[in-house]
Amino acid sequence: MAERKQELEALRDELIDRFERYKAHKEQRDGPLDKDMEDQSIELQNDEVVEALQQEAEDELRQVMHALKRIDEGEGDVCEQCDEPIDARRLKAVPYTTVCRECAELG
Ligand SMILES: [Zn+2]
């Protein structure tokens, strides 16, 4: 499963990069407001989108880190809920998953 680990590490780096960009974007936006009201309302909408994207990146990053930890512990391809092996095709499709299809569907 070395290949999956490499894939996850690349994904992790990409997510950290994305997260930092959103963060930088927001910090920039928190600067002095020197535009007219119309621009500000557009910025506000953008901020909400960025906020949502940042949250999404953070959630995904947490999931990736968790999967990497499982791989390091030698349990990367075992479902953390029922201890059954996770289907290889599922791992390929969703490399950061830590549960089997059945458990994922049960929620
Ligand atoms: Zn399971």
TrEMBL record:
Keyword annotations: Metal-binding, Zinc, Zinc-finger
A GO MF term: zinc ion binding
Location of the DnaK suppressor protein-like N-terminal domain: 7-71
Zn finger limits (dksA C4-type): 79-103
Pfam assignment, any one: zf-dskA_traR
Keyword Cell membrane: no
InterPro entries xrefs: DksA-like_N, Znf_DskA_TraR, Znf_DskA_TraR_CS
Domain Zinc finger DksA/TraR C4-type, residue spans: 78-105
Name of protein: Transcriptional regulator, TraR/DksA family
